[in-house]
């Protein structure tokens, strides 16, 4: 009992302490400051765009992993989980090596188009997609695996192409997983700090998201950091609540 | 493309080591496929529908179905357990095939509504499958398969898992739809009554091979497999190149070796004793297992209980004797 209680307290106390030490009188001012609003807007926009990309690219990948038997499937699945365990800072360094101005892809891209990812909002989105993709793919793959593949067969005998089957049968049946993956991925993206700051720096308005702002603010203005953190806590709890309803509901 | 229902099916197909079946079917014909579990009945249907790897050919109106992509085969498969799409309404389930083949929503739904009406469940159009009873769901499943106007309708044990009263109602209804259906229908069943009442011909699968094909009455009267004999309630005994079939009530039970010259006598312990209509039915572990019916009075007088050794005999005039192989001439009675 004691270790269990300790564990619960360990999780709970910091959150309560944070809420308790928030300066409520300064809160409105902190939250409506230009920097905070910019960072919040950027966080929401980049996370949302990132999750759209994660779905567009991750759904087919999840389907491939769940439904198609091919050589190297195990290796591909392992690869998908790498960003989960990779320290985010390392993810940022890796992204730099690939998409930086002198990176493997970044350099030719710069030569051809004059565009480079680092230190731009696009770079923020790219970093978010990289770290959030595993959540989306793993959640959807799990849902696809537990869905009865004979529904796909039924669709095929009724004349549906693979694409129609995927769109009208496979994905709707995997919807709880799609929603869970989307919410988890979006939340991961919203909280992203390491990869984003390493790859894109910390420019207000273009690359400064809520987590980077909190990180910076904490060094100068403890109260502001607390206020901003409270916003993130509220968002996190909101995500949890949303997910719970979907997990308990039926498709 | 020919109109629906004018095509003959000539099939000779092999599914792995499990099934090697050759058969033909005429347009408008209902072919019942019966056989014990594991005989390959479902595999045969799934092969025609394109859901399992298959060798050989299944030529329908000059075109080999097996060389046609699954979605281009004009085949309607009613799955065991229905497999209605759980997230779609009954109407959307039935309309699915036509929509998937590129028909507009309104046109597809009009056809679907028409099919639901024919099955007497138009008022259930908006329900999700989980809100349907077993019989209703099965009607939707059959309507879904028929709505695509298939050349071949494949029904995989359509009555399994339904209440007996629901089965009876649905059987009559399906019989009506099958009579109207211009294409070929293959009906997998393990119920003799389906084969006898719904089909024009019966195809008996045994261990993946076609053991017998014929009109239901003929197959029922002269079964060539023990499975079919059991389904129709006949005893079946091999005798050289012949088979001997006889009803359980043609069997005489005695405690001692019967006198006389009849070769039709067997000995063994009683396996089960159970009421059967007005009679008592014995199952006796002779070689092979045999059924015998006798009056309750006779059963009581003989003191028949499981485990007791008995003799069974049948009069030569009460049995039917025929060649064990298809086309083999009977060698007399």
From TrEMBL, chain A:
Residues 40-243 form the ABC transmembrane type-1 domain. It is found in: Cell membrane. Keywords: Cell membrane, Membrane, Molybdenum, Transmembrane, Transmembrane helix, Transport. Gene3D superfamilies: MetI-like. Pfam families: BPD_transp_1. GO terms for molecular function: molybdate ion transmembrane transporter activity. One of its GO terms (cellular component) is plasma membrane. It is a multi-pass membrane protein. The chain crosses the membrane at residues 45-66, 78-99, 119-140, 224-243. CDD domains: TM_PBP2. Part of the binding-protein-dependent transport system for molybdenum; probably responsible for the translocation of the substrate across the membrane. Belongs to the binding-protein-dependent transport system permease family. CysTW subfamily. This is Molybdenum transport system permease. It comes from Nocardioides zhouii.
């Amino acid at each position: 009992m004691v270790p269990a209680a300790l564990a619960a307290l360990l999780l709970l106390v910091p959150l309560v302490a944070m809420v308790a030490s928030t300066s409520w009188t300064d809160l409105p001012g902190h939250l409506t400051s230009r920097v905070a609003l910019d960072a919040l807007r950027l966080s929401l926009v980049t996370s949302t765009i990132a999750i759209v990309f994660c779905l567009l690219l991750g759904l087919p990948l999840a389907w491939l992993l769940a439904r198609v038997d091919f050589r190297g499937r195990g290796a591909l699945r392992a690869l998908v989980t790498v960003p989960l365990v990779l320290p985010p800072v390392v993810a940022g360094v890796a992204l730099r090596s690939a998409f930086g101005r002198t990176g493997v892809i970044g350099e030719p891209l710069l030569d051809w188009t004059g565009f480079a990812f680092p230190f731009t909002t696009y770079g923020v989105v790219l970093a978010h997609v990289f770290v959030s993709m595993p959540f989306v793919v793993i959640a959807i793959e799990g849902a696809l695996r537990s869905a009865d593949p004979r529904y796909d067969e039924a669709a095929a005998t009724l004349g549906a192409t693979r694409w129609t089957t995927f769109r009208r049968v496979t994905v709707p049946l995997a919807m709880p997983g799609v929603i869970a993956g989307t919410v988890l991925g979006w939340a991961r993206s919203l909280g992203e700090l390491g990869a984003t700051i390493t790859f894109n720096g910390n420019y207000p308005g273009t690359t400064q998201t809520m987590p980077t702002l909190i990180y910076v603010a904490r060094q100068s203005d403890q109260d502001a950091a607390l206020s901003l953190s409270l916003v993130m806590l509220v968002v996190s709890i909101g995500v949890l609540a949303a997910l719970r309803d979907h997990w308990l509901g039926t498709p | 493309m020919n109109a629906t229902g004018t095509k003959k099916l000539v099939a000779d197909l092999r599914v792995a080591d499990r099934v090697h079946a050759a058969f033909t079917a005429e347009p408008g014909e209902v072919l019942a496929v019966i056989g014990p579990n594991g005989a390959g009945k479902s595999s045969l249907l799934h092969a025609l529908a394109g859901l399992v790897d298959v060798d050989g050919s299944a030529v329908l109106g000059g075109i080999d179905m097996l060389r046609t992509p699954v979605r281009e085969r004009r085949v309607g498969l009613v799955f065991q357990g229905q497999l209605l799409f759980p997230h779609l309404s009954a109407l959307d389930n039935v309309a699915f095939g036509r929509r998937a083949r590129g028909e507009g929503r309104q046109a597809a739904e009009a056809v679907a509504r028409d099919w639901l009406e024919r099955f007497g469940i138009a008022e259930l159009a908006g329900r999700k499958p989980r809100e349907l009873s077993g019989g209703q769901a099965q009607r939707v499943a059959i309507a879904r398969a028929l709505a695509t106007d298939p050349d071949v309708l494949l029904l995989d044990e359509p009555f399994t898992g339904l209440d007996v009263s629901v089965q009876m109602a649905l059987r009559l209804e399906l019989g009506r739809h099958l009579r109207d259906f211009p294409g070929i229908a293959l009906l997998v069943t393990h119920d003799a009554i389906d084969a006898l009442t719904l089909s024009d011909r019966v195809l008996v699968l045994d261990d993946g091979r076609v053991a017998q094909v014929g009109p239901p009455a003929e197959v029922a009267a002269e079964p060539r497999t023990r499975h079919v004999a059991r389904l129709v309630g006949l005893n079946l005994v091999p005798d050289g190149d012949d088979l001997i079939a006889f009803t359980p009530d043609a069997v005489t039970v005695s405690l001692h070796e019967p006198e006389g010259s009849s070769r039709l006598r067997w000995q063994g312990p009683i396996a089960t004793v159970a009421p059967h209509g007005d009679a008592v039915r014995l199952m006796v572990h002779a070689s092979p297992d045999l059924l015998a019916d006798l009056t309750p009075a006779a059963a009581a007088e003989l003191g028949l209980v499981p485990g007791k050794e008995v003799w069974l005999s049948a009069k030569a005039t009460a049995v039917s004797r025929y060649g064990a192989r298809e086309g083999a001439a009977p060698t007399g009675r």
